[in-house]
Design goal:
By secondary structure, the chain is α/β, with parallel strands linked by helices. 39% of the residues lie in helices and 23% in strands. A 5-stranded mixed beta sheet has the order 3-2-1-4-5, with helices on both faces. Strand 1 and strand 2 form a beta hairpin. Helix 3 crosses helix 4. It is globular.
Length: 147
């Protein structure tokens, strides 16, 4: 079991990606992938999975603040199902409420401290994925094994 987990902050224009480690419970922003015509660039996803060889995948589940489904909930769930089928890996959904807002705040703090320059939406997407993944890693999950 690799213990590596990839998390996707799914969007119809961009999908932020973070990588984390079950052993340490930590995650970091990795990249942001374009979604041409609202569709995944599967070659880019294939390359990421080949490079990182994760044991699990996590997809942010967009909802309203009260937890009810948003207009993107079903699309994100369909994306998660496609990942599960395409890569034969366990795929979990993670609550993504306020993850983008928290990512923006973190990035603004870094900028104020002089540790970063301009902040763009791609930065927010990958940092949101990292925050979601850290929350997901903090929850108990059964170990994943592959034969």
């Amino acid at each position: 079991m690799s213990g590596v987990v990839l998390c996707f902050d799914y969007g119809t224009r961009r999908t932020g990606v973070a990588v984390g480690q079950r052993l340490t419970g930590t995650a970091r922003p990795l990249t942001t992938l374009a979604m041409p015509q609202g569709q995944p660039d599967w070659a880019a996803f294939d390359a990421l999975l080949k490079e990182w060889r994760p044991s699990d995948l996590v997809v942010g589940r967009p909802t309203h603040l009260d937890g009810t489904a948003s207009t993107l909930t079903a699309t994100a769930e369909a994306f998660a199902a496609t990942l599960r089928e395409r890569y034969s890996l366990p795929v979990s959904m993670a609550d993504e409420r306020l993850s983008s807002r928290a990512a923006e705040e973190l990035l603004r703090e870094q900028r104020t401290a002089g540790r970063r320059g301009r902040i763009d939406k791609a930065d927010v997407d990958r940092y949101a994925a990292a925050l979601m993944l850290e929350d997901w890693l903090a929850q108990p999950h059964p170990a994943t094994t592959h034969d």
